[in-house]
Write a structure and sequence with these properties.
globular, 13 helices, alpha/beta
């Protein structure tokens, strides 16, 4: 599907998790997933080696569900290719981010960069996403390159980016501004450089301003929930640091994008890597939550006062603190059930990681039958999609999507 801007393209703005979704950024899995092997999948943050063709089929179904509900779907690979076609600066920046002279040595790095400058935009976009091995270098061996002589042919000259699939993490929107994040783990560091290229140079994003600069401190989009207009929750755990949450809060306050930020400590484990692995909003006053954390989750409330000063309270229990910040009496909680083993299984399978298409309408993995049934019983319309292969990197429909435009609620 093409991604040219339509004459009636909506302005980009997101002020909640549940306003009617209008435009979203996805990444269809590609050759970068074919780089995963039993030797490197742990390092590249996958718990299994996905069947790529099936992952693509599942992703196509996901995208079609969104389109059938009137959502404009933009694909990251298309946007990256178009960016590299229209901007020489983007090409230079993308190549510079991919070719690491500290690792390759200046001789090989200079050769590789010179070659990449001659590569057409579609091929360059693929190389920046899927990487390149020493065996795939398109020029002969330099007798003076010790790096090339000492590496195995299957080692990467340019690392692949299999986690590009999870577009939520490398950027997120607060109001009309985009935040470029700082991803915590080395395997994902270069993802934000590609996202940055698109937002900086693609014609569709001309004039878009930034809410947070990526080099401030580690923060990932999966940890950021827009509970209501002006109210943002930030998880601090395996990926987002306290310094990152504090820097984001100050940035949002300075730009009048939020008045309250709830900083929520979460366990530093693989199963709860982000806040959206334990809870996501499914309606204006409701969220789905992993029951094991319901009573223990707490929050520090950072607030910009009317006189411009910043106050901090807590930690206090998360649910009442969030409801108070949102200006409602209580937050409805839909949990994954009383069966502890089944709830733990479905939390691991991203049962709490839903993408709202409108208030009370969510996309969820079909495998989480118990969670989906409880959502339906609570009056939430569930649009199930397959995710047996998409979920091998630990991410559900929310992780797979970066909303660019939602209606106000």
């Amino acid at each position: 599907m093409g991604t040219e801007a339509a004459p009636t393209a909506r302005p980009f703005s997101v002020t909640s998790e549940v306003g009617a979704l209008r435009t979203v950024l996805l990444h269809r899995p590609g050759d970068e997933l074919r780089r995963l092997t039993p030797r490197n999948n742990d390092q590249l943050l996958f718990d299994a080696i996905p069947w790529v063709e099936r992952a693509q089929q599942e992703h196509d179904i996901f995208a079609e569900v969104l389109r059938n509900r009137g959502v404009e779907v933009l694909l990251l690979a298309d946007l990256l290719t178009q960016t590299l076609q229209v901007s020489g600066a983007a090409r230079i920046q993308g190549i510079s981010g991919a070719v690491d002279a500290r690792r390759l040595g200046h001789s090989l790095a200079d050769q590789l960069a010179a070659h990449l400058r001659t590569v057409p935009a579609p091929e360059l976009a693929q190389l920046l996403m899927s990487g390149m091995t020493f065996d795939e270098l398109p020029f002969g061996e330099d007798a003076t390159s010790l790096v090339r002589r000492m590496h195995h042919g299957h080692d990467f000259v340019i690392d692949p980016l299999p986690n590009l699939l999870f577009t939520r993490d490398s950027s997120f929107w607060v109001g009309p501004r985009v935040a470029i994040t700082s991803l915590a783990l080395p395997a994902r560091g270069r993802e934000t450089s590609l996202t940055d290229l698109i937002y900086a140079f693609h014609p569709r994003f001309l004039g878009v301003r930034r809410a947070y600069e990526s080099h401030t401190a580690p923060i990932e989009g999966g940890d950021v929930l827009l509970l209501a207009k002006g109210v943002v929750a930030v998880g601090v755990g395996e990926r987002t640091t306290p310094a990152g949450a504090e820097a984001l809060a100050r940035s949002l306050f300075e730009d009048d994008l939020a008045h309250t930020v709830l900083v929520v400590p979460i366990a530093q484990t693989r199963a709860t890597m982000h806040l959206d692995t334990v809870c996501t909003m499914v309606d204006t006053d409701a969220l789905v939550m992993y029951p094991a954390v319901q009573d223990s989750l707490c929050a520090f409330t950072i607030r910009k006062e009317d006189d411009g000063t910043v106050s901090m309270l807590g930690p206090d229990p998360f649910l009442p603190a969030a409801a108070k910040a949102m200006g409602i009496s209580t937050l409805r909680v839909i949990d994954t059930g009383l069966d502890g083993v089944a709830a733990e299984r479905e939390q691991w399978d991203d049962g709490n990681n839903t993408l709202a298409l409108a208030p009370g309408v969510v996309v969820a993995y079909e495998r989480n039958e118990m969670t989906n049934a409880r959502l339906a019983d609570a009056g939430i319309e569930v649009l199930p999609i397959p995710g047996s292969e998409l979920g091998s990197g630990r991410g559900g429909p929310r992780c797979l999507s970066c909303p660019l435009a939602r209606d106000e609620v």
